[in-house]
Amino acid sequence: MDLKDIYLLATLVACFWLDPAIAQELVYSIKEELPENALIGNIPKDLNISHINAATGTSANLVYKLVAKAGDNTLVRVSSSTGELFTTANRIDRERLCAGPSYEENECSFEIEVVILPNDFFRLIKIKILVKDTNDNAPMFPYPVINISIPENTVIDSRFSIPSATDPDVGVNGVQHYELVNGQSAFGLDIVETPEGEKWPQLIVQKELDREQKDTYVMKIKVEDGGSPKKSSTAILQVTVSDVNDNRPQFKDNQIEVIIPENAPVGTSVVQLQATDADIGTNAEIRYIYSTQVSPATKRLFALDGNTGLITVQRPLDREETAIHKVTVLASDGMPSPARATVTINVTDVNDNPPNIDLRYIISPINGTVFLSEKDPINTKIALITVSDKDIDVNGKVICFIEKDVPFHLKAVYDNQYLLETSSLLDYEGTKEYSFKIVASDSGKPSLNQTALVRVKLEDENDNPPIFSQPVIELSVLENNVRGLYLTTISATDEDSGKNAEIVYQLGPNASFFDLDRKTGVLTASRVFDREEQERFLFTVTARDNGTPPLQSQAAVIVTVQDENDNSPKFTHNHFQFFVSENLPKYSTVGVITVTDSDAGENAAVTLSILNDNDNFILDPYTGVIKSNVSFDREQQSSYTFDVKAMDGGRPPRSSAAKVTINVIDVNDNSPVVIYPPSNTSFKLVPLSAIPGSVVAEVFAVDVDTGMNAELKYTIVSGNNKGLFRIDPVTGNITLEEKPTSVDVGLHRLVVNISDLGYPKSLHTLVLVFLYVNDTVGNGTYIYDLIRRTMETPLDKTIGDNSETYQNGDYLTIMIAILAGAMVVIVVIFVTVLVRCRHASRFKAAQRNKQGAEWMSPNQENKQNKKKKRKKRKSPKNSLLNFVTIEESKPDDPVHEPINGTISLPAELEEQGIGRFDWSTAPTTTFKPNSPDLARHYKSASPQSAFHLKADTPVSVKKHHVIQELPLDNTFVGGCDTLSKRSSTSSDHFSASECSSQGGFKTKGPLHTRQGTLTRARTELNPEYLDLRSRAELNSEYWTPCTPLVSTDGQVF
């Protein structure tokens, strides 16, 4: 491998990178005259181009394409799939390809461009192919017969030039050797190599010549190249021996270089050659001629005056064809050895050539028009543009640009090559076709330019979905319509064309009540609308084009069904039942009528009215609120019934009716009424022979209320300190606990509390039961007198032990002792009151309807006497009585449960009542749970208890408790202070109601028995007073005025 081969190999491997991502360069070297389909090179292998997609790891289908001008006979071809470069049927002839003189072997070459597609892998490969010479031409002499004249006086070893042979091949394939054939020993041949590498043959005179002996020598000269195999040719060399002329011409300058512009007109002098000859006469006459080495083209361009040596322009010059002309001029005086001078003519550039635009399409045009899809991405390659200018320097500097604003641009790849690309996304709907010029302009003065027309048409893609004229379509239609009713026409437009703009319509879900024509978009009703079932329909309509793939869009359709008066008002219940408490104030709300109308607007505007009521109730025609126009009293009327009419505002109006019942709920507004004993002065004989457990007396009362308000409970609250008697809380039967002894003989006064289990406040009544323990009654008048005298004793005092003092007035000593003991007791009570806290006791009683016939009533005469005595003593109407709270020990016995509360409401009765009745089941409002309207709660207006029911809590201290003066034969009725407010502070059934006055007895612990250990009695003075009101409702024959109560110290209350 010689140095030239190493150079070519290095050139092949080297690449010049202008843009590594786009442009690369390869150089291949081939021999001329290669056969068809000879492999030149492998582009991907030589550039190390991978066919594997680095991102996905899959094989990329690269396409290699030769960029050639239409109509060109390409010398090479490229395989589109492998990228291999091959020769074609067009023969590569170096001498034809590179016509003209060549002095270096690598001067002949041609260039091609290859692009790699698709666009994502785009590369532009510029390939330079060097054509190496092959020995396909034999060297030739310019003439078949060469005539040389040699003077006869030529000295030996003189040299005479022989016209050189020429060979289109270069290098070793060019002229390498000359050989003289049949030199006849008079002549020899020598080869002189010029600095330019030319080999000039010279004929050497080897012996003296004598024209007279021989004036002509005929020989052959052979020329041979260095190729393999070698090629040669011959010419006849004829030497004529002439007369002697021993001085040859001499040029003043052997090397002359001149500059002439290429636009020099014909006849312009180029250079004046001048040679001189020392001879005279005809031997001094010099003739200027071109050397045989001067090409015919140069001879045509420049004229040489043979006499003067003036070289002139005889034809227009073109620097672009030949920039340098080398001319060899011979000056001969007739001698065979002329003088030589070399003239180098440099033709300077003039801006006489416009730029050339070479437009080679990457996307093959159809009839000169490139078709692009509007979905092609930005930087889609359209064509490779090569601009050139035959001029040089400034005149050959070309700029390239697009004439107007289009979505295309030129991207420079090399200095003179550009890629025509898309610069933005294309839109068929905006512009369907582009026609623009590419301008190439040089920098000469004046500037010359060239244009190339490019036509681009866009192909429509389905890139626009159908667009509705309204994104939300709102319609209204009356209910009860006919089927197939026209509603509206839905329309959409598509900016695409052809099938891409053909639209079909389709209903979305929830549109079963509608039909839609797929082509026209006409929307109709497929069913009959009922606004009451569905007032609004919301569905979608889809518009889809016929593109590939199809595009679609949606619009929302809202259909509102308008109301017709086709529904009558409807009550929530056919029969409304409301429950209200009696004593509810007039104009109170008792209930709400609820009515609905499925229609809307005026058709649903309902007005209510009462049909058949005697103005007992007031009905709001719009809200349905029922208010009372009467005061309720359950004992007078327990329910009210009437009809209600509802009428809407439609045209014509519709109406309906419902029944309403108002049920009056009982309120605990009646205290128990005592039936037995018939009066407070009645007594019952208890013989000493009575056995324990026997019934010795009965207490019976009734309550005109109902339910729990009428259930009674009986309790002994005073007068049974010895525990001799026991009362049944339910039946009211008083029985003996122990057999009476002589100690028990005398009059016993029992204070019995009768309380109901009413809500929200229990009411009670007190009754006095007198039991006379003795074998016989004896003097009845005396007993009645004792009873009247005991009425003056406070109710918290036990009169059983001192009854004998009333029987015998002679027992003064006993009396004094009793008085002294009473004083001691009073002192003890006073001290105890200061220490102990004050509590109120409350009682409840159970109801029992029972008759008793064993009570003894005083005669009318005694009653009249009582009234007279009472008048004489002028007792106040409201007697004041001090009550004390008593705590005693009782046996652990259910009958003797501890009581806690006021005298008007014993606590143990309330507890027993709660044990038998669950207040949690009681309604929290005046309505039953099944009432049709539970939204409203009404407070009961029934009288509220004035006694506080808080157990074991000290009561607030008040200075007085009012007690109404009652007749002896009347019962005691406990309640709140008449001056207190009768209002409930809470609707909770389990909350206590505050009372304006409190007081009474309070008993804690078991009562003592005669056999058991007596606990220390604790008394507490209660400064409040008990309001004992008479019951006017009871039969007046049972009740007579009562003697005022008198304390032990004789004070009248």
Automatic annotation (TrEMBL):
Annotated Basic residues bias: 865-876
GO biological process: homophilic cell adhesion via plasma membrane adhesion molecules
Signal sequence segment: 1-23
Cellular compartment(s): Cell membrane
Chief location bin: membrane
Domain of life: Eukaryota
Membrane-related topology note: Single-pass type I membrane protein
Family matches, as SUPFAM superfamilies: Cadherin-like
GO CC term (a single one): plasma membrane
UniProt KW Transport keyword: no
Keyword annotations from UniProtKB, A to Z: Calcium, Cell adhesion, Cell membrane, Glycoprotein, Membrane, Repeat, Signal, Transmembrane, Transmembrane helix
Transmembrane segments: 811-835
Record-annotated Cadherin domain positions: 33-141, 142-251, 252-357, 364-468, 469-571, 572-674, 686-796
GO molecular function, one term: calcium ion binding
Region (Disordered) residue spans: 848-880, 987-1010
Ranges of compositional bias, category Polar residues: 987-1000
InterPro entries the UniProt entry points to: Cadherin-like_dom, Cadherin-like_sf, Cadherin_CS, Cadherin_N, Protocadherin, Protocadherin/Cadherin-CA
Function statement: Potential calcium-dependent cell-adhesion protein.
Name assigned to this protein: Cadherin domain-containing protein
Species this chain originates from: Erpetoichthys calabaricus
